[in-house]
Design goal:
Elements lengths: L6 E2 L30 E2 L3 E3 L6 E3 L24 E3 L3 E4 L5 H12 L11 E2 L18 E2 L3 H16 L21 H5 L14 H9 E2 L5 E3 L9 E3 L22 H11 L4 E3 L4 E3 L28 E7 L12 E2 L14 E4 L15 E4 L9 E2 L3 E3 L1
Parallel strand pairs: 5-15, 14-18
Antiparallel strand pairs: 1-2, 3-6, 4-5, 6-19, 7-8, 9-11, 10-11, 12-13, 14-16, 16-17
Helix pairs in contact: 1-2
Length: 380
Amino acid sequence: MKKTIGVLVLLVLMVGCKHDRGGVRSEKEQPKPTPENQKIDYPFAEVPFGNRVIEGRKWTGSIPQWTDKQITGVFVEGRKVKFSPYEIGKYEVSYKIWKDVCKWATEHGYTGLENVGNVGCSKKEGDIPKEQWDKQPVTNMTWSEAVVWCNALTEMEKGNDAECVYRDKNGKALKNASDTVGVSLAQWADKKGYRLPSQAEWEAAARYSKDATNAINHAKDGEQPIYFINNISASGGKLPIAFKGIKESADFETMKNELKRLAVCEKYFDGTKDVKFEPEIKFTSIVGSKAPNDLGCFDMTGNVNEFCYDWAEFKLNFDKNNIEENPKGPVAPSGDEFAKVIRGGAVVTLPQYLCVTYINWMEKVENKYVDTGLRLARTK
């Protein structure tokens, strides 16, 4: 692991001057600890193309079986996107960070975050060594719990809820993760607190490349390039992920080693069939155990799926004549679906679902999966 993630809690005690007549401070007069300046050790990577136009490109390469249009990602031909400057977490949120913020939240007026979250994801209980628990990615929370947790972390660090991103229809910061109706009404606010990335932000960060190796230039003609790696690669990959019918390469051994370098995953395609890695991968790894992508982010392919803000959009709708600023998906769920997007793939999945442009989703905001966690983002 490149950097140990822990939680440094600095508790500032406001010492008053009030005394009783005997000169001894009474128990009732003891000042309460404030939530101010309690920070977590969670580094961010700055995404280097804020305020620039990203132009979508048509994918002409191979498409894995069973993925259909989901492999196209969100930067499709004709679409133009511009992001405000933002940062994205270098790591998936660890179990210890999640647990510590949940404890703070329940002590400071938040509800629905009691005893939630699992340690990573494993095939059977007891697989994950106890000494790894704090550094494993947290999983098994609902989307509702994830966004309210982001608000709690923001308030824990800043001492108030003014910068909390997620708010109800009345503009109040969301603090009840059990209120799925209220949470489902959360609107994107112009705030600087912690949040989930939009799936466009997530994909841009996952696909960022420093050069043209295995990448496509998505900048406007004549401008400094913005390279995104090809659709069928792992995040940070210089080669595609192997799957049945791939035309880009026949060097399956090299592609296997590239996937193993970047992603915590169970299987690879050997040119004939899906095969388990040896030694067998039975559970998630501690965050940051594999190589980072070019932005310095770890585990954006494999380990656990990661929540995004967006409602699932089963058909991308955009105006080719306009530039979309900070797209966040539909303002409401599609039809009767309450689907939220998850990206990145998990430890136990088929190789084709690890492609960096593959889009997956949950069915309802109150659902939770043992292979899904989160990565933080924030507007600069």
